[in-house]
Amino acid sequence: MFVGSLSSITFRKSTKTSNADVHSLVSSSLSSKSTGSFQWAACQLDSLSHCRTIRGIKKSLETLPQGLSETYAKLLVQCSPTDVVLVRKIMTWLAFSSVPLTLHQLWEALAIEKGQKVIDGENRLRSPQDILLLGSSLLSASSDGHVALSHLSVRDYLVSSEIRNNPATAPYALDPSMSHKELAQDCLTYLLLSNLSAGPSDTEEEHLSRLEQFPLLQYATKYWFYHARKAAADDELRSLTMNLFAPDARDNFMSWVQVLNADSPFKWNVFPRHATPIYYAASLGLDEAVESLLALTWGEEINAPGSRFGGTPIHAAAIRGHVTIIKKLIAAGADPGKADFNKVTPLHSAASRRRMETIRVLLEHGAPREAKDGMDGKTPADWARLSGHEDVAKMIETFSEKAARDKEYEGGSRRGASPPETFSDSIPHTIDVWQPGVCFFPDFYEKRSGLDCSRIVGITVGEESCTFDNDFTSEEQDGGSAQ
């Protein structure tokens, strides 16, 4: 009944005909064959809307595809051979983007070309609306300008064995790790555009103008590393990552750092001018990039402040719980006890977030347990208690460095020392989805947003409500900032 009503209304609009018999035929045909699938019926209506004659409509109704997979296959096969690459790129972005994209953002993304330093206007679709024409029923656009796959089943089909095993649709098949690689490469190519080589914006007006001129800039800035971590191993992707971190791309790097730190327009000027590539590589969990940076002469920034608050690469990794990276940094000579501008050590940060494995590694390598912060002299154990982690505080206070490791490591040069094998590397050291956690956050630190001290307790839509469990105790929770 619902499908029949929809088909009658939509079909009447799309065909601009008043033939009641045809309306009835379409309604009854779709209702009887849809098996209750709204998405299937909507796709057929879209296909029927392109029929120019009643005879064409009737012929199409006689050959309706069975199920959604066959429907999606039919829609893809109908694409012009010259549009295959473009349609596949549309599907890749919409299937694997981290957040919903606007039509204008997707329009910009489709114009990115591998290895190019500028966006060629001649390679851009003439209108963003062309995207909707190319995607047909596989896409949907919202009233606020966002575009998405029309149904979750579209994504399921794009990564299924059905699409790969059909020679006619195989060119559109998507592999998750390869798709993330493609998106990471596009984002990095965008961040390395020559237009961004002028360095950070000098005024708020320039900053806002840049965001308007480069509609994909905020997405590329915030999510390229997410896609990179999800991507298949690839030399080209590694090269692009190191290109962004290279000394001769310092202006592009700083342009990225500025946007990354500016989570609202008025924060355009809060980014650290002394930012270092290895700090951000460590913060973002980019293991291979950290290794590459450590192997280069400009990897000597290992103990240099890299964040707004003077945090070192070990600070960055400790906040996020990237244990393997911490071990690599220490083995290369990083000081696990070096404090930031506010005398906060990596152990303070790890203690407040209950990073148990991180805390053990730092303590084993001589991180000072009694270090006091610059506000009112709080120790790492104090930070743990203020965060509600009494067990962490006791562990820090009772830790015996002598029992944990040999004396030969204490007081000597850490450069070249091998990381301890006491604890397993199997604990996850990358966090894909940021969630606010319970932690102590001193007043002298500027909070990036209310999310640092807030959490969603429930959502109400109309008369429907959903309440969430707010017992955040998992080590996967993160209340820190990458910046």
Could you characterize what this model shows?
Residues 403-428 are annotated as: Disordered. Keywords: ANK repeat. InterPro entries: Ankyrin_rpt (IPR002110), Ankyrin_rpt-contain_sf (IPR036770), GPIID_WHD (IPR054471). Residues 86-164 form the GPI inositol-deacylase winged helix domain. This is GPI inositol-deacylase winged helix domain-containing protein. With 483 residues, this protein is mainly α. It has 3 domains: 9-64; 79-173, Winged helix-like DNA-binding domain superfamily/Winged helix DNA-binding domain (Arc Repressor Mutant, subunit A, Orthogonal Bundle), CATH 1.10.10; 174-406, Ankyrin repeat-containing domain (Serine Threonine Protein Phosphatase 5, Tetratricopeptide repeat, Alpha Horseshoe), CATH 1.25.40. It contains 24 helices and 5 strands. The protein has helices spanning 2-15, 20-33, 38-48, 54-62, 67-77, 84-96, 103-109, 129-135, 152-158, 161-165, 176-191, 204-213, 217-230, 235-245, 250-261, 277-283, 287-295, 313-320, 323-331, 346-352, 356-364, 380-386, 390-398, 401-404, and strands at residues 101-102, 139-141, 146-149, 458-461, 464-467. The strands form 2 sheets. Strands 1-3-2 form a 3-stranded antiparallel sheet. Strands 4-5 form a two-stranded antiparallel ribbon. A hairpin with a 4-residue loop joins strand 2 (139-141) and strand 3 (146-149). Helix 11 packs antiparallel against helix 13, helix 11 runs parallel beside helix 14 (235-245) and helix 20 packs parallel to helix 22. The protein is elongated, with a radius of gyration of 27 Å. It starts with a helix and ends in a 16-residue tail after the last strand. The relative contact order is 0.06. Mean pLDDT is 82; it is low at 1-17, 406-438, 443-456 and 470-483.
